[in-house]
Amino acid sequence: MEEQKKREKTIIRTSYVGIITNILLAIFKAIVGLASNSIAIVLDAVNNLTDVLSSVVTIFGTKLANKRPDKDHPLGHGRIEYLSALVVAVIVLYAGITSLIESVKKIIHPETPQYSTVALIIIAVAVVVKILLGRYVKAKGKETNSGALIASGTDAISDAALSAAVLATALIYTFKGVSLEAYMGVIISGFIIKAGYEMISDTIADILGKRADVEVAKKIKEIVTEEPNVLGAYDLFVHDYGPGRGYASIHLELPDDMTVDKVDILTRKLTDRVYRETGVILTGIGVYSHNSDEKADKIRRTIEEKVLAHDWALQMHGFYLDEPKKIIRFDVVMSFDMPQAEGVEIICEEIKAIYPEYELAIVADIDISD
User: What pLDDT shows up at residue 139?
Assistant: First the structure.
């Protein structure tokens, strides 16, 4: 809870810095743009205003995301952050489209800009300020695992590059008399639209659910497999309920002579350690029973070699030979280009040819975290 409060304060404080800075930049740029009759500088000011709105949405999103869990939302409100990030992305995309329309109008009906030395200095200062702001916000975003802050920081650095391009355009006109104002406006609009589209794509991926972070998945598996009795860890699935709110389930392969009380002690120990070291809560730990006799081990190796001979069979696990009932059961992780029913049928035919006396119970898995 303390970590969440600290994270919230950092995000809000960083957003306030962004709001104040961008308001000041927008005011100065708007004054310069209107005085110079420069569409590129005016659009640059508008871009700063969208950054202000983005920061405001980020603050409200963070506040709502940290509401306490309730009866209707027992796992909290963390995913609101993804919705707020989506709102920010839509705002950015809208700003880009409207800027493009205005720039095209200026190409059709051009106007002559007039730059002063003060205007050029203000634009140059704005470039430096934006670079510093972008680096600061992005660093705080990584520190707090805030997608909205990381996106805002990245956008600020991109804005600095665009402001630098606007400055170059102004200098070209001042010394060469060639006006590239409206065309630079089109380029700026293109970058804004691209940023908005990418932000929307990334946020929708978070909302829909995507593959678990590679480093987190690797760390969880390292933790559980360090235990002597854990012979394998499979089917790790991390449910994302917002930044810093991960819930996971996993299957462990354990010796078939392990008692329930020992399994209980082990799973409680692993749940505690995984949470302390990764922040992810293990809500479910399933168990695969591992045969301890040589006959079962020999059959397992034979079947595994046969199964993994197929390119689409990525992994075999959870093998168990129930000799009294003449049943062989195991799971096969298949690639997404192989229909599961078809894959199971192929494997069944091949294994039946080798061990016709056994009934097969094969479960098709998908490649979730490996």
Answer: 87
Largest CA distance in the chain: 92
Indicate the residue type of 342: E
Cβ burial 140-173 (10 Å sphere, 16+ → b, else e):
bbeebebbbbbbbbbbbbbbbebbbbbbebbeeb
Identify the H or E element spanning 332: strand 327-334
CA 114 to chain centre: 44
**DSSP reduced 3-state for 143:** helix
Per-domain residue ranges for the chain? 2-208, 215-366
Residue type, position 357, single letter: E
Q: Give this prediction's pTM.
A: 0.58
Question: Tokens standing for 356?
Answer: 């016709």
SS3 252: strand
Structure tokens at 280: 């992810």
Task: For Cα atoms 58, 59, 61, give the angle at the middle one, nearest 5 degrees.
Answer: 65
Sheet strands side by side (includes 359-366)? 313-322, 327-334, 359-366
Residues present in the chain in total:
370
Rounded distance, CA 192 to CA 156, Å? 11
- DSSP string across 77-103: STTHHHHHHHHHHHHHHHHHHHHHHHH
Q: How many angstroms separate the CA atoms of 297 and 320, rounded?
A: 9
- The Cα–Cα gap between 281 and 248 comes to 6
For domain 215-366, the question of CATH label 3.10.310.10 is answered with no
The pairing of beta strand 327-334 with beta strand 313-322: antiparallel
Question: In this structure, are residues 189 and 99 in contact, taking their beta carbons and an 8 Å threshold?
Answer: yes
Cβ(62)–Cβ(11) below 8 Å: yes
How many Cβ atoms from other residues are within 10 Å of residue 294's Cβ? Answer: 8
pLDDT < 70 regions, the chain: 1-4, 40, 75, 111, 147-148, 209-212, 242-244, 367-370
The pLDDT value given to residue 94 = 82
Element (H, E) at 314: strand 313-322
- Separation of alpha carbons 317 and 338, rounded Å: 18
Concatenated DSSP letters of 270-307: HHHHHHHHHSEEEEEEEEEEE--SHHHHHHHHHHHHHH
Structurally, at CATH architecture level, domain 2-208 sits in: Up-down Bundle (1.20)
